[in-house]
Amino acid sequence: MNFKSLAAIVVVSGLSMAYGASAVKFGLFPYPQIVSIKHNSTEEVRSPYYYGKKSFFEVNGKEYPIVMVGDSITDQPDWNELLVHTDIANRGIGGDTTEGILLRMDSIYSTGAKKTFVMAGINDITHSKDIDIVFDNYKNILRLLNDRGMNPHIQSTLLTGKSMAKYNGEVLKLNQKLFEYAKENNIPYIDLNAVLSVNGFLADEFTTDGVHLTGKAYELWGREISQYMQSDI
Predict the structure, then answer these.
(1) Strand (E) positions, the chain?
(2) Is residue 1 part of a domain?
């Protein structure tokens, strides 16, 4: 390499470094594009609440015959009080997704439960996650539970109220996939929308905000699943 070529490389490198610094400082191309890509990444951001609950369950979780798995809709009630039981573990975490559940399976395994009731997906859907990815995550959750002998039961992802109706098309798609998968793999499928929805929407009397449930809704939910808790299924 001759002197002129080396000098040219040094000049170009210097100009590139200078432009890079200016791009960051003044928002020149391609810095805005890089930021946009980063902000629109599919990587999920989890809350301190998620990590706190995950850690607590992993370290302090006790054994129970039955475990409820899901997001805030599962997290909200005291299942033992609702169903007059003393043997139900609540592994719902507010704001969770199917991916989040997969990342905390150890906190579910720690219960040693023989029956698992799963409801998930609404947070994936409201965050525009591709429904095929959500379904794949859900299948992996079910497979892992089966591998541990934890007998999963699928509870239909709940429809939303009229104020959030734009999400219901995707909810129906997910539930159809789950129903077919349950039938093919001999997994109990519990259609809670049959008792909590009216004309394709979560009934107004059963929701506080279009997603989360009232006490009456939980009472009906409890009635629907109690038969599965008492059976050998």
Answers:
(1) 66-70, 88-92, 115-119, 152-155, 189-190, 197-198, 201-202
(2) no
Burial class (CB in 10 A: 0-12, 13-18, 19+), 154: buried
Cα gap 187→207, rounded to integer Å: 28
The number of residues in the chain equals 233
- 141 located within any domain: yes
Mean pLDDT of the 124-128 span: 97
Say whether 135 sits in a helix, a strand or coil: helix
99 and 188 inside one domain: yes
Sign of CA dihedral 25, 30, 36, 38: negative
| 45 within a domain of the structure (yes/no) | no
| 99: nearest Cα among 79, 127, 78, 80 | 127
**How much is the pTM?**
0.81
Average pLDDT on 217-231 reads: 94
**Residue 140 lies in domain:** 58-230
